[in-house]
């Protein structure tokens, strides 16, 4: 009997743990597979960890990792993937917006020899705020234009990964992780299925607008050097454009007797524009250098504070 690991990162989700486990139990008990649930508490400030511990006492297949602080969702996913021992791993959110009943459809495609079964929103998320829908749309347009991968609009962290895909992902030693892009990058036989997100059962999303901007920038630069080519092209364009100023100077001097350009406002505007452009180009280069600096430190992507399991080979041993 094949085993399925379900990795669920959780950050301040105390009211969602019990309902989620109940829904998963209803769906999975009739699938013919064995399951393990690996909850990763990503530095929660509420009683999320206690709720997970209660569920682990009721259901022996529930395991948990408590991270020492909030490392971010992708790093929490990495921690769960590295501890998962199933023949396939399913990742999903803990707020019940990812419908548990879709797991059966994922398993059906997995049985048809698909290595990756991932989901994307079938339509605009009506439950999200306007700025979240707009920023999400711009994010996917930007990453598809500036990176070497292509992501569907609304692609989610609700996916099934075959063991061989998980093994490849675990080999990647990267400081800044973007799993949605990494899963597409590794290739294999993939199947996309649409889903309609449900209402969040409880709590508020922890991603702010500025966190989304940071995520977008990091994601675009993690899979391509096209931003460097883009700013190089911008610099080259304005350098060539400035050459056109030379004929203007000669014409003004020989035909109109003007030795200096009139108007200080246009000069100040030009200096300010090119000064801002230079800072922008330096900023892009600096972000790439910053990524190299953080990668060279080789700090761990996460630290486990406590857990009820230990991994030995391909097996998990409960403490």
UniProtKB/TrEMBL annotation:
UniProtKB keywords: Membrane, Transmembrane, Transmembrane helix
Segments traversing the membrane: 228-251, 263-289
Domain Glycosyltransferase 2-like: 5-168
Keyword Translocase assigned: no
Domain of life: Bacteria
InterPro entries referenced in this protein's UniProt entry, alphabetically: Glyco_trans_2-like (IPR001173), Glycosyltransferase_2 (IPR050256), Nucleotide-diphossugar_trans (IPR029044)
The UniProt record lists the keyword Transmembrane: yes
GO cellular component, one term: plasma membrane
Protein name in UniProt: Glycosyltransferase family 2 protein
Organism: Mucilaginibacter glaciei
